[in-house]
Amino acid sequence: MKKLNEIKEIVVQTIKLSDEFHRFLGNNELKEKDDIKIRYSQEDLKERRKLSGYLESFDDDTVRAVQAIMYIGRDEIYSNKTYSDETEVWAKIEEKKKTLGFETKEIEVDQMVSKSPLGDYLRLGLKLLGL
Length: 131
Description:
With 131 residues, the chain is mainly alpha-helical. Helices cover 68% and strands 5% of the residues. It is globular. The model has no long low-confidence stretch (mean pLDDT 86).
């Protein structure tokens, strides 16, 4: 299991890659095809792969910790709870992980990467956890 400061570094890098990917998408319109589906271009997929490949390079437990921080940021925006030490932060992350399903690392990474506000959720999760 990674140390909390290592998880924080991974989350910070994930935020950076997510911001880059979504900035790229904002500058490049998605193409409509068959008047129904919107598909990523090959260039879009290459940019997306930077983010998903980064997350997939970690073990399942690390991905689950990042996922838990993301959901803490999404679900607990109005929480007034503060965490005074590393033990409390880990307990909160572990508590959140228990509420989440986990299929495969690739599926879970795809779910995270598909969220437009991924970077915002992670930033807020770090803030709420006092990291």
